[in-house]
Amino acid sequence: MVDYNPVLMTDMYEYTMLDATLQDGTASRDCVFEVFTRHLPEGRRYGVVAGTGRLLDALADFHFADEDLKFLRDRHIVNKETVDWLEHFAFHGSIRGYREGEMYFPNSPILQVEGSFGECTLLETLILSILNYDSAVAAAASRMTSAAKNRPCMDMGGRRTNEWAAVAAARASIVGGFQGTANLLAAKLYDLTAIGTAAHCFTLVHDSERAAFESQIAALGRNTTLLVDTYNIEEAVKTAVEVAGPELGGVRIDSGDLASLAQRVRNQLDALGAVNTKITVTNDLDEYAIASLQTAPVDSYGVGTQLVTGSGAPTCAMVYKLTERAGDDGTMVPVAKKSTNKATVPGRKLAFRSYEYSLADCEHVISGTKEQLDTFTPEEGWQDLLVDFVDHGQIDDQWRGHDAIINARTHHEEALKSLPITAQSLMRGDPVIPTQTIVLPQ
């Protein structure tokens, strides 16, 4: 996505742990790490997985350049033997988890990473930084598109966040149901629909609003969208139709009481014969503002700050925990933390969703040994939620690129429809379905 090497997108302790385990011999132990969250953001009914494709892109580039090794050596972060080990690093493990666009709930095994301790521990910060942010944006986008009721939402949040995060947010917004982005780098990298025409400064730099509209239409055609709230909206709409004719593509309103203004503008456009001209509204929208506009004659929404900040929940509190590792004799042993309020469930996991009358009613997480899970038979009608992303170092490219993003958006839409309708409520509440965790006896 940007010009950086993902091998240093880490916390330092990942390398100090690697250094120590290479010296004591435990770096080669087979391990299973799991990504999950103990709770959803307060009041949210579901979460949305996003960022997996970006993670796989980063994993494909996870190789050490000479300058990276020099940095680690010169800063005395690791010793020479570890530098030699890193020089030939490649991830040979396997990764499986919830597909992008899928809903998750507390204790859902969102991602499971299996490989040697040395390989897996280096991926912790990279995995969490991508999934925590992208999933937060996708969840916000999902709530906004639900509130929009089939009216398209567009990402305009690039100027409200870090420049790298802007690209990630644009991608994640599509997973959550958005239709396009104003960010050209995201549009280029992921082949997304790019949107945008003009800001208020474009009107202000011209001698008159009419001159600005004439310039924009000359450059972009009659199907463009004109910004009509720089001075007086009623006069601007009248001028816009006079300049472009009734074929004017759209107008954008960026201030004021959007519902009442949209109604007045719609009536004015119709009276002027511009019955097919669309109305777009912007101005610091969130899901609640969008919901309040459901009865207004608005055709699309442009969303910025609240999208890229997760609409009040900018992270998902996902964690990356060791759940199984090989013992001295090579036998896999389930492990777990017992810390107060931070206990974990030992063992690798399966995940299913059950349904009643075609609506999801429970998430089922099954924990056990590999042998137990290989022979586990789910109940009839349970949906398997886990897919394979990486198999012994080989990345499955169906989960990367433009098509994967569009498929994730489609899957998200279908998955949301399969949840009880209260999932789409904007009122605070508990997760829309419970999670049942079963630890198989050893």
What does it look like?
It is a single chain. The protein is an alpha/beta fold and 442 residues long. The protein has 2 domains: 6-137 and 313-439, nicotinate phosphoribosyltransferase (Alpha-Beta Barrel), CATH 3.20.140.10; 197-295, Alpha-Beta Barrel (TIM Barrel), CATH 3.20.20.70. Helix content is 37%, strand content 20%. The strands form 4 sheets. The chain has a 7-stranded antiparallel beta sheet with strand order 13-12-1-5-3-17-18. The chain is globular, with a radius of gyration of 25 Å. Belongs to the NAPRTase family. It is an enzyme of class 6 (ligase).
Please name the defining characteristics of this protein.
442 residues; alpha/beta; nicotinate phosphoribosyltransferase; TIM Barrel; 2 domains; seven-stranded antiparallel beta sheet; 16 helices; pyridine nucleotide biosynthesis; transferase; EC 6.3.4.21; Nic_PRibTrfase-Fam
